[in-house]
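Entry:
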Amino acid sequence: MKIVFILLALGVCATYAQIACPDEKPACGVNEEYRCCGPACDEYCDGHDCGIRYFVCPNKCYCAQGYKRNNAEECIPIEDCSKAGPRY
């Protein structure tokens, strides 16, 4: 019975994520991509983590793969993160 409930819950969540994603995706910034139901927070160069990554899943622009946000909220290559300085 537990497995049926879990599968049902996952199906509802997956269906909601597809319904909640707009047909027209907004324009994103440089090195960003729009994701439906992405993590609750972005990945930052300083390793800042919000702790609850998938409790909520907003539809928004995130850094593309291989990029993280610097303290100016720009998506920069991960290898440049050491030059980004601390986030305030």
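The longest strand covers residues 32-35.
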